[in-house]
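Re: duplicated header lines in exported C-alpha cells

Our pipeline writes sequence and C-alpha cells for each protein into one text file. With two proteins the header for the second block appears twice in some exports. Here is an export where it did not happen, for reference. First protein block:
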Amino acid sequence: MRHDTAVPVFLFLFFCFEIAISAASAQNIRLYVDNSEGDDISVIDLNTLNSIDDIHLGDRVHGLAMQADGRRLFATIESDNTLRVVDTATNKAVAMIKLTGRPNQCAVTPDGHYVAVPIRDKNAVDIVDIPQQKVVKTLPVSKPHNAFNAGSNRYLFVSAMGANQINVIDLRTMTYSAKVAVGGIPRPYVVTPDGTTMYVAITDLHGFMKVDVASGKMQRVVMPAENHTPKPRPFEPSNTLTHGLALSPDGTELWVTSLLDNSLYVYDVKTNKITGRVQVGDGPNWVTFSPDGKYVCVSNTGTNDVSIIDVRARREVKRLKVGKAPKRVVAAVLGA
C-alpha cells in the first residue's frame, strides 16, 4: 500500500520553522543610541522596532561599547570625564570610573575585562581594568579619536589623527605592538575579525581607505555622490564627508555613511564595488548591524532620529525619534 508522506513532512518542516522564528523573536535584541547633546542613551527594541527606555547618565554622552554577551554597556561622559558601566538587565549604572581627561569613543574586549578610552585633551588613551574599576595604563596618542575592538581579548585599536595612523594596543604588555599608516587623517574605522584588513574613513574623502595591515598596502575607494558641496553641520567639520561605517556580521558587505547625500552606500567586499545606496535622515553619523545581520541602524545627528534599514531589502523600514544629536550606536542580544 502506498503511503503519502508529503503532508506530514511539510507539517514537520513548518513546525520546525515556527520554532526557529519563535526562538529568534524571543531574543532580547536591543539598540542603544547615545544623545551627545543630552544626558541619556535611548534604548530601542529591534524585535518590535519601538523605543522602550531612556538611560540617564550625565551630560554629553559620547562613546558607547558593548560587552560581547550583552550584559554590560559602557559609556563615556564628557561633562565629568568618566566611564560609566551599565547593567543592561536593569538599564542602571553600576559603576563610575574616573578617567584622566575628556573621553571619546571607547572599545571593550569581548570578555569585558578592558576598555580603551581615547583622551582628547591629553593626547592619550586610557586603558581601564573593569574588575579593578580604575585606569591601569595611559599610553600617548597624537590627537586620539576612536577606539575599536575586532573580537580579541588581547588587542585593542586607537586612531591617531595627528599621525595619520591607527595604533594597535597589546594588552599583555600594555604597549603598542604596531602602528598602521592609513593614508590620511583617520575618522571612524573598522577592522576585520582576523585583524588583517582595516576600512578607514579619512578626512576630505567621500569614501574610505582599505588597508592591508601586514603589508601596509592601501586602496582608496571613492563613493559616488549626487551632491558635491558639503552642507554646514554643527557637529562635524565640513571636510568630514564620511563618518560612520560597519561590516556586516558575515563580513561580505561594508555599509558607509555619506554626509554629502544623507545616505548609506553599500560596498561589496569580495568584488570591491559599490552595489547600493539607501537614503536616511540628515547627518548620518554612526552605523551598526543587528547581531543577526537583519538590520543596519544609523544615527542621524541633524534630525535627532535613527534610521533602521532592512539589509536584504535595502530600504529604511522605520525612523525613530531619539534625543538631541545622536551619535554612537551599538546593538546586542542581551544575555547572549
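Second protein block, exported in the same file:
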Amino acid sequence: MRSSRPKPLHLLCGRAMVLYVLDALGDCAIDRAVVVVGHGAERVTKKLVDASPDAPLEFVEQSVQRGTGDAVGVALTAFSADELDSAEGDILVLPGDTPLLRASTIAELVRVHRDTDAACTLLTAEMADPGGYGRVVRGRDDRVARIVEHADATDAELALTEVNTSIYCFRASVLGPSLRRITPQNAQGEYYLTDVVEVLASAGYRVSAVVADDASETLGVNDRLQLAAAEAELRRRTNRGWMRRGVTMVDPDRTYIDATVELAPDVTIFPDTMLQGRCVIGSGVELGPNTRLIDCEVGSGAVVEHTVGRESVIGERAVVGPFAVLPPGSTITADARSGPFYTAPTN
C-alpha cells in the first residue's frame, strides 16, 4: 500500500455540463480541475466561466478530435512533470455530460482506488440493455482485464451487461506512459482511453472496479430527449433538498428551481413557478402561481404572483402582481403594492 497521508487529486473533464460534474465532487479534495474543450471551445469556455466565476477551472483545447485517449493526453499538458511523475497523486477522469452523478459515488470510487492500491479504478454499471456502451471484460479472480467498445465487440462480449461509464481514477505516474502505448487500430480509428485499462492489466498493475448502486446516475446526455430526462431528475433532487430545508412547495412536480438559486427557510412556492439564474429569495416569501423570476432578489415576507421578472429587486413585504412585469433593473420598494397588470419602470 502507498502512504496513507493525503494525496493530490486532480480532475480532467470535458463538455458543457461540467458544472454539474463539479458539484458531484463535493466529498473529494480536488487540487486542480482541467476541462477539455473542443468544438466551440471559446463559447463553451466563456459560458463556464460566466456561470461559475469562482470555480477553479483550467482549460485545454483538443483542436482535432481523435478520441478519448487523445483528449486525456491533451489534458495532461496542463500538469507539470513533477505532478505526473508523482506516485502519490491521482487523476480523476470524468465525462462532462453525466449531470446525475452523486458525490457519494465519486467518493466511493476514490476510496476503493486508494484502499486497493490500484493503478486504475473504473466506475461500471449493470444494464439490462447495454446499448452502445463499452463492455467490461473480467479475467482471473474476477479482475478487470480490459474494456471492449461496442463497435469492436464480439457477439459473446456484446452479451455482457457490465458496462464502462467512462469514469476513472488513475494513479498519476502510470497514466501518461500508458497513453503512449495505445494506438488507433479500431473500428473508429481513434485513440480509446479504454485501451489504457488493458495496457495496465497486461503489465501486471491492479485495475479495480466499483459498480454503481444506481446505473441511471451514470447515463450520459447525447440528445434532447436524454437532456429532458436528466433535467427532470435533477429538478426532483433539487426540490427534495429544498423541502427538507424548510421550503414549502405546493406541487413539486410543477416547480422549477435552478441549482444556482438561494432560498431562505419558510418560503412557499405555488405551482408553475420557475426560478432561474442567481435568484435570492428571503424568508417567508410567497411565490406564484405562474411566476418566473430570473436573477432577481426578493426580500423577506414579500408576495409575488403571476409575475415575470428579470434582474430586479423586490423589497421586503412588497406585494407584486397579479400579472406584473418587471424588466431588467426594476426595483419594488419595501411594503409597496404594485396592483394588477403592472409594468415596472426601469432605472
